[in-house]
Structures are given as structure tokens and as C-alpha cells.
Write a structure and sequence with these properties.
This protein has 12 helices and 14 strands. With 391 residues, the protein is of the alpha/beta class. It folds into 2 domains: 141 residues, Alpha-Beta Complex (Aspartate Aminotransferase, domain 1); 219 residues, 3-Layer(aba) Sandwich (Aspartate Aminotransferase, domain 2). It binds pyridoxal-5'-phosphate. Pyridoxal-5'-phosphate (PLP) binds next to helix 4.
Length: 391
């Protein structure tokens, strides 16, 4: 009898972490990561907040705390939902998680039975595929268009498939950069309501819009939707602070799962972040991140247009951190990956983002870690590697 539990057998390893090991060499231009640009981290402000919390309430801030999370932080999140999106969400229906990644694990524990049909975007977020895989669901996928999931296919799948849960990233999706249109959000929500499909709407990038207009979350069309958020991309990922808001029955199960997992999210970190948020304008801070990422995104779009032939398609995101590239069918992005490494440039091949296979000719490019000059140079090298692939 093997030592490792059966449930771990089909959990994919994070291919990205493997790639990042290769990308560590300083002369490699890496479009592989998915990290926020560290120049945006509010280091001094967090230092001030740490000192304040320790000096003024150190003993409590270093003590165990509640599973739900720091109430004032939950209140801040609830107020922001109301101000920015017109969503009325009570702080009591928000639970602070160790990043939104933990929310995915807790949702898996609370909702997914072995063999349940779970519908994912294609391509979809690798971390969700990984988190849910532990609970041994049967993955189904719905193809993404430039405006979100294809709603005709969605209707067919939901009608025939007894889908328990849908997971999606409607704003500047990881990996594709695609944003669901308002029409797709409303049509998809109707379909989910009609067929009784629970919806998890993951939104770590929503605040990073640098062009176009904000679109209301699907939760607006479905008050029972589960909505996730994160401070990783607007403050700091190291704080490991995210949240889940869900109907009481689900939140209760998630709360129990969280008690079993880690009792509560790092309380000191919650107190420090709250102090930071109350002493500084997060809007101003987000504005500076958006401005930086727009410059980088524009540089990447312009470089791709300049160096790649028109048969190579790519998305033009209105926010977030990623561009998705589709090569002509006959190409394999794994082969391009090997060729690109020789040119000291790297990216993530698309295959791991396909929960049920496919995506051989696709790849993800991250633009938030390089200067515009490096982006231009890296895309030129990548295009050279592509043009040199023999057929
Ligand atoms: C779509 C999506 N969800 C969740 C996460 C996890 O973020 P965190 O746990 O840092 O909040 C990420 C991280 O990149 C992501 O892209």
C-alpha cells in the first residue's frame, strides 16, 4: 500500500514554479511569472503600520483571533463593494482567507464531492485546477471567447451535465487577460440560475483596470454567487490576505473547513493591512499600479504587432497582468519554449491551463515584471525563435 493518499495522484504540479526556477538567471527576460511588480509595494507605509500596531496594540495583535477575520478589515471590504460596485454585502458574510488561493481550497472542501462535475474556463486558472483536483471532481470546460465563456456552449453543458459548480475569473482573466462583457455576465448568470449551478467568481485583478469601463460582477445578477477577492495585487501578496463572501450555508461550511485548516488567517498581517488602509489612499496607490501596468501592456502589444506575423493571434487586455497568444494550429508552444530559452526569454506554455487537455499552440505572457525596453527586446527574441521553428 502506498503512503500517499489516492486523492493526490491526479493533482497537477505547478508547472509555473518549475519554469520560474529556470527563469532565475539574471540575463533571462522572463514573461513567465505572474508576480506583481515589486516597485509598487508600499514598503515604507507597511513599516509605519507595523510599528503602529505593535506600539499601540502589540499584545492583542500577536494573539490568536477569530476564524472570520478582523472585523474592521471586513467592514473596509464591505464598504468598498458598496462604493465601487454598488453591492450591498454585510461584513458578517465576509471571511478573511490566507490569500484567495486558500478560499479555493476551502470551497473545494466545503462543496466538492468526489466525482462532482465542476465547470472551468478553457483556458483556466492553474491554481484553481490544482486546488480543486485534490477533491477529485470530474472537470468539464467551457471555451473562452474574447468576451468570456461561449454562452451557447455554456447552456448546452449546463443542460446536459449536472454541473455542481462553475469557477471563473471575469476580470482580466489569468491566463488569457479576457474580461467577460456585461452581456455574457448576465446571460451566463441566467443559465447558472436556471440549472442550479453554484458560481465562484474570483476577482484578484478587478481593480487593475487601465482602460475601458468597470463592469458589475456576476454577483449582481445572482445574490447567491460566491465572490472572492484579494489584496495581493493591490497591496502585497506576502501579507497573504484575501477573502470570500458567500451565502450563510456555504460560509458556515467554509468557516468550519478553515478552523480545521489553520484556525484563522495571520491576525498581525490583518491588523497591519488595516492600519495601512486607514492611513493611506488605496485608490491613489492603485492608480499608480494601473499607470505602470498600462505602459508595460502597451509596450508588449506594440512589440508583438511589430515582430510577430499576423497569423499569430493575441489578446489585448484592458487591465490585469497577462496577454494570451495563440499560434497557428501546427505549432507547439512547448517546442517554442525550448527554442526561446536558448534565446534567453521565457513564458508559460498554455497546456497546463487546460483542465481536460488541449491548448498545445497557446501560451501566456506576463508583462508586469519587465521594463518596456526589456519587453521589446524579449518579444523580438521570442518572435525570432518562433520564425526559426522549422516545418
Ligand atoms: C485568478 C487567481 N486567483 C487566485 C490567485 C491567488 O492569489 P492570492 O492567494 O495571492 O490572493 C491568483 C494568483 O495569481 C490568481 O491569478
Amino acid at each position: 500500500m502506498g503512503l500517499i493518499a489516492d486523492r493526490m495522484k491526479n493533482v497537477p504540479k505547478s508547472f509555473i514554479r518549475e519554469i520560474l526556477k529556470v527563469a532565475e538567471s539574471p540575463d533571462i527576460i522572463s514573461f513567465a511569472g505572474g508576480l506583481p511588480n515589486p516597485s509598487t509595494f508600499p514598503v515604507k507605509e507597511i513599516e509605519d503600520a507595523c510599528r503602529y500596531v505593535l506600539e499601540n496594540d502589540g499584545q492583542r495583535a500577536l494573539q490568536y483571533s477569530s476564524t472570520e477575520g478582523y472585523y474592521k478589515l471586513r467592514e473596509f471590504i464591505a464598504k468598498r463593494y458598496e462604493q465601487k460596485q454598488g453591492l450591498l454585502i454585510s461584513p458578517d458574510s465576509i471571511l478573511i482567507t490566507s490569500g484567495s488561493q486558500q478560499a479555493l481550497d476551502l470551497i473545494g472542501k466545503a462543496i466538492i464531492n468526489k466525482g462532482d462535475n465542476v465547470l472551468m474556463e478553457e483556458p483556466g486558472y492553474l491554481g484553481a485546477i490544482q486546488a480543486f483536483s485534490v477533491f477529485e471532481p470530474c472537470f468539464k470546460t467551457v471555451m473562452m471567447t474574447n468576451h468570456g465563456p461561449d454562452t451557447d456552449s455554456l447552456e448546452k453543458i449546463c443542460k446536459n451535465g449536472k454541473i455542481k459548480l462553475f469557477y471563473g475569473v471575469p476580470n482580466f482573466q489569468n491566463p488569457s487577460g479576457v474580461t467577460y462583457s456585461d452581456k455574457v455576465r448576465s446571460e451566463a448568470s441566467k443559465i447558472f440560475l436556471e440549472y442550479g449551478v453554484a458560481v465562484v467568481e474570483d476577482n484578484p485583478y478587478g481593480e487593475l483596470r487601465f482602460m475601458g469601463e468597470d463592469i458589475a460582477p456576476m454577483r449582481k445578477h445572482n445574490p447567491d454567487g460566491i465572490l472572492l477577492g484579494s489584496f495581493s495585487k493591490i497591496a502585497s501578496p506576502a501579507l497573504r490576505l484575501g477573502w470570500i463572501t458567500a451565502p450563510p450555508e456555504i460560509l458556515d461550511a467554509v468557516n468550519t473547513a478553515k478552523q480545521a485548516a489553520d484556525l484563522h488567517t495571520n491576525y498581525f498581517s490583518q491588523r497591519v493591512l488595516y492600519r495601512y488602509l486607514s492611513e493611506n489612499s488605496i485608490d491613489k496607490h492603485i492608480e499608480s499600479i494601473r499607470a505602470l501596468y498600462k505602459t508595460q501592456r502597451d509596450a508588449m502589444v506594440a512589440s508583438i504587432e511589430k515582430h510577430f506575423p499576423p497569423e499569430v493571434r493575441f489578446t489585448k487586455p484592458e487591465g490585469g497582468m497577462f496577454i494570451w497568444m495563440t499560434l497557428p494550429e501546427k505549432y507547439d508552444s512547448m517546442v517554442l519554449f525550448d527554442a526561446a530559452i536558448k534565446q534567453s526569454v521565457t513564458f508559460v506554455p498554455g497546456k497546463p491551463f487546460y483542465a481536460v487537455g488541449g491548448g498545445k499552440n497557446t501560451l501566456r505572457l506576463n508583462y508586469t515584471s519587465c521594463t518596456p525596453d526589456k519587453i521589446e527586446e524579449g518579444i523580438k527574441r521570442l518572435a525570432d525563435a518562433f520564425k526559426n521553428m522549422a516545418f
